[in-house]
């Protein structure tokens, strides 16, 4: 459970970092609000992908542990 404690914070930080990069690019290039919007969606996508990878890795470990317990029961 502790492994997933920081997932929400990581999600928020990822979105905020990409949001600020998008804002900075918009100010430099004068393209309001396009890079901001792209930044938010990129940050959210990166956060979802990271969360997905973490959950799949945990699921694989749980499946391996379950198989090992079944082998010991035989």
Largest sheet: none
* pLDDT < 50 runs, ≥5 residues: none
**What's the pLDDT, averaged over the residues?**
92
Shape: rod-shaped
**Please, what is the oligomeric state?**
single chain
Strand content: under 5%
| C-alpha Rg (nearest Å) | 19 Å
- Cα separation of the termini: 29 Å
Fraction in helix = over 70%
Order of helices and strands: HH
Count of DSSP-assigned helices? 2
The helix-and-strand class reads: mainly alpha
DSSP strand count: 0
Key descriptive features of the protein:
0% strand; mainly alpha; single chain; 74 residues
Quick synopsis:
By secondary structure, the chain is mostly helical. Helices cover 85% and strands 0% of the residues.
Tell me what the structure shows.
The protein is mostly helical and 74 residues long. Helix content is 85%, strand content 0%. Helix 1 runs antiparallel to helix 2. The longest helix is centred in the last third of the chain and has 40 residues.
């Amino acid at each position: 459970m502790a492994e997933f404690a920081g997932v929400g914070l990581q999600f928020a930080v990822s979105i905020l970092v990409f949001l600020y990069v998008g804002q900075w690019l918009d100010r430099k290039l004068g393209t309001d609000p396009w890079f901001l919007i792209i930044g938010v969606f990129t940050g959210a996508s990166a956060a979802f992908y990271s969360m997905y990878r973490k959950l799949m890795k945990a699921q694989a470990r749980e499946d391996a542990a379950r198989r090992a317990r079944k082998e010991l029961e035989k």
